[in-house]
Amino acid sequence: NSIDAFMRGIPKAELHLHIEGSLEPELMFALAHKHGVKLPYASVEELRNAYQFDDLQSFLDLYYAGAAVLRDEDDFHALTMAYLKRVHADGVVHVEIFFDPQTHTERGIAFATVIDGIRRALADGEREFGITHRLIMCFLRHLDAADAMRTLEQALPYKDAIVAVGLDSSERGHPPSKFEAVFSRARSEGFLAVAHAGEEGPPAYIIEALDLLKVARVDHGVRCEEDPALVQRLVQDRMPLTVCPLSNVKLRVVERMQDHNLKRLLDRGLCVTINSDDPAYFGGYMFANFQAAQRGLDLSREDITQLAANSIEASFLRAAEKKHWQ
Ligand code: ADE
Ligand code: ZN
After folding, report:
1. How far from 25 is each of 47, 62, 283, CA to CA, in Å?
2. Where exactly are the transmembrane stretches of this chain (predicted)?
3. Domain regions of the chain by residue span
């Protein structure tokens, strides 16, 4: 199929990828065995069958439990390397990876163990596959702001390795305003900012992310459509939305792919991009997300070209690096 070859071949950047969400069941079992951790599933198949979610929280419960097999630097290296190898085959040329340090430091894993393993893989991946990278540290919004502030302080020695801070986990009841002071400190330390907003939460959370956290991109943001003035603002400012089509269907943000607003937002002139979020849990990496959206929404070659161009435009690459892909 020629549109598939086109989608796979076109250079694109992935801007919304939780590295812990790329943990495939096979690697989860291998690491569980390595560390003598007991998983509550008898087999890879049984685990995969458990990946049926009602909403964001039902997914997060499984995602945090799965991450418990990640214990040493080599685990984080293997996790990140497997992801890079996989998306190299999908035509991804640049990645901006989220990691959730609190998921690990809460279990007694050192911050350094996590980031050193990921960084070593990113460097290896650049050498082996030519994939460039940025790293984004996310705060877990279900934890309190003081915990996020302590995490930010732990990250200061790694400033040069982390381009931005982000905000993820349970959205409802945890508005961006809760983290205004943390993000203000982060920006004063030189970090850029992004935040998950408008995935399950209301458009008001997107407005808070823009006004209070001063984000350079909105992760998901699909509920912006409920507020026409907000949509107009996002278009005017060319504020990128990192949309995750398969995730939105799996977590029932939309009922079916045909109902997704990606194409409408694209046609309105928004800088929307396609991303995989947590590919091991949601049924596919970058190409699978492009393919599912293309089929469900009847996207044209021009749409695909625009989506890929948006991903480069919305990235944190330097202007000269963007030029190379434009
Ligand atoms: N953590 C991993 N994936 C997430 C998502 N889609 N929304 C919020 N937090 C997440
Ligand atoms: Zn996400």
Report:
1. 7, 12, 12
2. none
3. 2-316
CA nearest to 56, candidates 301, 292, 278, 297: 278
Helix, strand counts (H, E) of the chain: 17, 8
Residues 14 and 317: beta-carbon distance below 8 Å: no
Side chain identity at residue 60, one-letter code: L
Quickly name the fold that domain 2-316 has.
Answer: TIM Barrel (3.20.20)
* Other residues' Cβ atoms within 10 Å of the Cβ of residue 2: 7
Task: For residue 158, count other CB atoms closer than 10 A to its CB.
Answer: 16
The whole-number pLDDT of residue 1 equals 85
Across-strand partners of 81?
Answer: none
| pTM recorded for the entire structure | 0.98
pLDDT digits over 1-25, tens only? 899 999 999 999 999 999 999 999 9
Q: Angle CA(274)–CA(278)–CA(284) in degrees, nearest 5?
A: 65
Residue nearest to atom 9 of ligand 1 (CA): 169
- Phi and psi at 177, nearest 5°, equal -55, -30
Catalytic residue among 24, 199, 200, 208: 199
pLDDT digits (tens, 9 = 90+) for 220-249: 999 999 999 999 999 999 999 999 999 999
Q: Is the CB of 296 under 6 A from ligand 1?
A: no
Q: Is 245 in the pocket of ligand 1 (CB under 6 A)?
A: no
